Amino acid sequence: MPTIGIIYNDIxxxxxxxxxxxxxxxxxxxxxxxxxxxxxxxLGYSKPNRPVCHTPITSLTPPGFSEEMELAIVLGGDGTxxxxxxxxxxxxxxxxxxxxxxxxxxxxxxxNHLSVAIEAIATKDYEIEERLMLTVQMYQQDVLSxxxxxxxxxxxxxxxxxxxxxFEVEIGRHAPVDIAADGVIISTPTxxxxxxxxxxxxxxxxxxxxxxxxPICPHSLASRALVFSDQESVTIYAANPDRLVMVVDGNAxxxxxxxxxxxxxxxxxxxxxxxxxxxxxxHILREKLGWGLPHVAKPTSVELP
Length: 305
Hints:
Elements: E1 3-8, H1 13-28, E2 32-37, E3 44-45, E4 71-76, H2 78-88, E5 95-99, E6 109-110, H3 114-122, E7 127-140, E8 143-150, E9 153-157, E10 165-171, E11 177-181, E12 183-187, H4 195-198, E13 210-216, E14 226-229, E15 234-238, E16 244-248, E17 252-256, E18 260-275, H5 281-289
Parallel strand pairs: 1-2, 1-4, 3-17, 4-5, 5-6
Antiparallel strand pairs: 7-8, 7-18, 9-12, 9-16, 10-11, 10-15, 12-13, 13-14, 15-18, 16-17
């Protein structure tokens, strides 16, 4: 008997309602269904006075979710998708992402198209697209104090007010570089259309095996986004007297004190998206961000009487 999961955003009434209706429908068609909320993928913030306070990456999987599960359906927006992948990526479970939010850049279909999607799943008429993820770790005196899976980006900056910070960044075996900026972003190709794009970084198509470093409001004309191989790890030391805050995928993070270091590297786990049609990245860019829209000529000037 096939097994399928449903992960939903339990603070959105429409997602809760659709999750229950979908579960009943799938059970009626002979599926074994496991239901879970996305809250388990929201890690929250660690505290600097707790020596070891991380939740291991492999400990976030909801009960009933395992390698034997064919796929899971996610009901929510982009934040729910990011949280869901932290829950299931270690077990390689593909996710069909269904938009019940606003932007839905990471979602594959909409609630009103769900019946068509279920039919495609039942007949196995879909593809799997893999996206790289990052393992983000914070060390205090060589002790792992916090870690998380990351699909979009890791951001390190000062709080509560933005101001210039100094960072020493080591990429692979290359010589360290010094960056003076409000913060730094380490982004995947998937995250290149998120915070990194707003900070001036380039758009990277998902299949390119690279990462990017983007300084936030750098204090130098020479500090610009850098694209490098995803086979190289990144180590960041914050050369500041005050603690900084690290945020992963916009909803989880930890404090980073002057003696701490942050390590970012390609994760052995990947985000596996269920695609109901062949992925078309440029179409998504056009639909969601308006990229490549036809140029509209300005109206001809009219002389005033």
